Amino acid sequence: MSNHFDVQIKRLPGNEDIPLPQKMSELASGFDLYAAVEELLVLAPGDRALVPTGFAIAMPGELEAQIRPRSGLAFKHGITSLNSPGTIDADYRGEVKVLLINHGKEPFTVNRKERIAQMVFQLVPDIRLTEVKELDATVRGAGGFGHTGTR
Ligand SMILES: O=c1ccn([C@H]2C[C@H](O)[C@@H](COP(=O)(O)OP(=O)(O)OP(=O)(O)O)O2)c(=O)[nH]1
Ligand SMILES: [Mg+2]
């Protein structure tokens, strides 16, 4: 690939055994993230937890990283990321964490080194907001929230 970005990643102390985020196939868009829980964490139905990943990153200013659920965990166990997609700001230097929630009917055990979510990098355009008194007119206007149909 011609265009690439260098992103620095730092393992946090005590996480030498945790694999770094990994693409599981050549063209995967996400890097899978591994749980850096002490040993295991049990999520009862309806419970949520901030799951550590054991690393921090520094990316170029034109990027952000999104934390997205793994569809397999969502489909098989009802496990997803509550704030999906989670936002990792380019200037964030703390540990990347995954806010998991159990929407399933059974308790779910997160084991150390288990893949719990994925991290997708995105370009963030440099947007400058300009305040105006009037916006330009469009056919849609203020219609929304299903106004084009009955559902
Ligand atoms: O799933 C997530 C979401 C956020 N963060 C970290 C990185 C991000 O840069 C920071 C702030 O996230 P966000 O802006 O979503 O949270 P906030 O509630 O607005 O907090 P803040 O006031 O710190 O921005 O928290 C994570 O590690 N995982
Ligand atoms: Mg914020």
TrEMBL record:
Catalysed reactions, as listed in the record: dUTP + H2O = dUMP + diphosphate + H(+)
Record-listed E.C. numbers: 3.6.1.23
Cofactor or coenzyme needed: Mg(2+)
Pathway: Pyrimidine metabolism; dUMP biosynthesis; dUMP from dCTP (dUTP route): step 2/2
Record GO terms (molecular function): dUTP diphosphatase activity
InterPro entries: dUTPase (IPR008181), dUTPase-like (IPR029054), dUTPase-like_sf (IPR036157), dUTPase_trimeric (IPR033704)
The keyword Magnesium is assigned to this record: yes
Positions bound to substrate: 70-72, 83, 87-89
Domain spans labelled dUTPase-like: 17-149
Superkingdom of the source species: Bacteria
Keywords: Hydrolase, Magnesium, Metal-binding, Nucleotide metabolism
Family: Belongs to the dUTPase family.
Role played: This enzyme is involved in nucleotide metabolism: it produces dUMP, the immediate precursor of thymidine nucleotides and it decreases the intracellular concentration of dUTP so that uracil cannot be incorporated into DNA.
NCBIfam families per record: dut (TIGR00576), PRK00601.1 (NF001862)
HAMAP family with a match to the protein in the record: dUTPase_bact (MF_00116)
Name by which UniProt lists this protein: Deoxyuridine 5'-triphosphate nucleotidohydrolase
Species whose genome carries this gene: Paenibacillus gyeongsangnamensis
Gene assigned in the entry: dut
